[in-house]
Amino acid sequence: MILSDLQKNILENKNFDTENEEEVLKFLNPNFNDHTFDGAKIKDMMKAVERIKKAIDAEEKIVIYSDYDCDGIPGAVVLHDFFKKLEESKNKISTSPNPSQGGKQNQNTNTNFKINFINYIPHRHNEGYGLNINVIKKLIGSGYTLMITVDCGITNIEEIKFAEENGLNVILTDHHLPILTSPNPSQGGENPTQILPPAFAVINTKRFDCEYEEKFLCGCATA
Q1: Which residues contact 34 (CB under 8 A, 6 or more apart)?
Q2: Do residues 196 and 177 touch, judged by C-beta distance below 8 A?
Q3: Which has the closest alpha carbon to 211: 49, 40, 50?
């Protein structure tokens, strides 16, 4: 394996031993089946999955609220496309011939299954970074009952508290650092604690109580 000077420099800055060919190749050519961990180990993950399933089954109004940057938008696309794939899969099953009826399609089957969701990307200048309280108020007023954040929200304590108290459950997915209480390690403290927003579920591998092995997922990967 031959690395360019640039590749070697980047890998060494990431604390890789560039002489360890196996580890370098694993990083440069990851295999989804072999080189990822069990997402169910992320704290609150299964709780979030069940809440999303409940919302879909009950035809609740769902909003995917993402950051506007090059991490949040791809994450929003991932969830958008996932929901569309669920719709496609459900409708494909609905239109398949039923063997119990001699292979004939069931004409009474609903083939227009839709997940009631939208994507919302805040305006960088008018609404700012993170969750905007005025947007949340509008979403609540429009009947949304579930909000999934992408790449934002971990420090929006008051905004999420308001949402939860007013009927809008929040599934927070973010990779930024939660707020730390004193003592802060940078100030000589040894055992800081984290302040997490009171969301229905907080998906963030930087939580102290999260057992997921990879702590440095980007916002898109977290979503």
Answers
A1: none
A2: no
A3: 40
- pTM for the full predicted model: 0.83
For residues 10-35, one letter each, b for 16 or more C-beta atoms within 10 angstroms of the residue's C-beta and e for the rest, the string is: ebeeeebeeeeeeebeeeeeeeeeee
Long-range CB contacts (within 8 A, 24+) of 50-58: 51/146, 51/169, 51/171, 51/200, 51/201, 52/146, 52/148, 52/171, 55/145, 55/146, 56/86, 56/115
- What is the C-alpha separation between 31 and 37, in angstroms, rounded? 11
Give pLDDT tens digits for 77-128.
999 999 999 999 989 887 666 666 565 555 445 568 999 999 999 999 999 9
For residue 142, what are its two tokens?
């429009």
CB 153 within 8 A of CB 175: no
Q: Which domains does the chain have, with CATH numbers?
A: 37-222 (3.90.1640.30)
Q: Which two tokens stand for residue 112?
A: 């227009």
In the chain, the percentage of residues whose pLDDT exceeds 90 is 74
Amino acid at 207: R
